[in-house]
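Record MSHA biogenesis protein MshK, 108 aa.
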Amino acid sequence: MDKKMTWMAALLLSVCAFDAYATQDPTAPLGWVASKTKTSQAKARLPQLQSIICDGKQCSVILSGQVVSIGERVNGYTLTNVSESSVTLSRSGKKWHLALFAENIRTN
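=>
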């Protein structure tokens, strides 16, 4: 029984050692360490302006299928201004102006 356990331990250690050896690149220069891979952040897409709906004093906007009012956010962009034909979005100190064609404007 002792001999069997010794063989099992030796086999287990050799498998672990082989796994550790396989993780290193044998063709790399001595002392070389692989650089960390950069993870790029996915850029938020600018929402698509689909409609502007104004009823008197307040206007709502449909951006990428979501109804949004001033101060609300879509895809990280904040709706800051709404006129009858365009909107202003802001993100990280930058501003974007999106405009509609005249046939997409609806006033109640």
